[in-house]
Amino acid sequence: MYFSTPSIAATLAALSATVNGALVRVNDFGSNPTNLQMNIWVPSKLAENPAIILVLHPCGGSAESYAQMTKYNSLADQKGFINIFASTKKDNNCWDVASAKALKHDGGGDNQGLVNMIKYTIDKYKADPKKVFATGSSSGCMMTNVLLATYPDIFAAGSRYSGVAAGCLAGSPGASPQTADPTCANGKVNKTPEQWVVQVKAMYPEWTGTYPRMATWHGEADNFVNYPNLAEQLKEWSGLLGVTFSKNVTNTPQSGYTQIVYGDGTKLVGYSAKGVGHTVPAHEADDLKWFGL
Ligand SMILES: *[C@@H]1O[C@H](CO)[C@@H](O)[C@H](O)[C@H]1NC(C)=O
């Protein structure tokens, strides 16, 4: 015997700690028209009727890498909500926010598969359908915009980092830096709030209810998804949410960031980060505050 029993026990304990700290793959969550991967993080102390946060990685990323880069899972462990970390493996691991089927409610795009992950999770864990949120970075921010525009019936709020308005990439042959028409990322798709509203409402014409609350963050030194895309998102959502600019609050939530407040600040806020490039790092605690968790 080369190994004493206690050392095997110690090895097994270390292994099981690693397994507990991993996302769990879910294979059969319902219709998955674009072949996405679903991973879930369910804390051992789950809240009663827990909230759900769908967390979306940037281009080239994965569920696993974005889970490691961010604090959403440790916060879920503290607060008892569920995270869904999804992955796409197509178009340089970018979410489809360009095709006609993705810019539609139940059109068979990535957005529909993502919503089916949420419906599965609500059923299986008796999650609260009124506490469903989305967040993401870069391509994940773009998809958060598309999800909240095409599924206002599913989401209560979103918070996103360094992306573009829903519909900005409409008609582009792809949604990755390698495949997209660059006009949108260059900040050259400029519309009035009214034009954005017409475009978004056409994605789900049957919807007559309200749209989800939204927070969006962007770096002023972003030369990859250019800074004007912050203003375009704010125009889009100010139109959808029926709120107008009310004030700027400087150095909020930290030095160099300006909080751009619309209405009374409960439906729409932007954060403009001075000197920050691509991307604004996730501000997980601020996201949870925005979601009311
Ligand atoms: C509010 O802040 C943003 C970002 O710094 C800036 O672009 C905008 O001009 C400001 N608006 C006013 C009215 O000060």
From TrEMBL:
Protein name (record): Carboxylic ester hydrolase
Keyword Secreted: yes
Keywords for the protein's UniProt record, in alphabetical order: Carbohydrate metabolism, Glycoprotein, Hydrolase, Polysaccharide degradation, Secreted, Serine esterase, Signal
Gene Ontology terms: cellular component: extracellular region
Record function comment: Esterase involved in the hydrolysis of xylan, a major structural heterogeneous polysaccharide found in plant biomass representing the second most abundant polysaccharide in the biosphere, after cellulose.
Pfam families linked: Esterase_PHB
Superkingdom of this protein's organism: Eukaryota
EC number assigned by the record: 3.1.1.-
Biological processes per GO annotation: xylan catabolic process
Residues annotated as signal peptide: 1-21
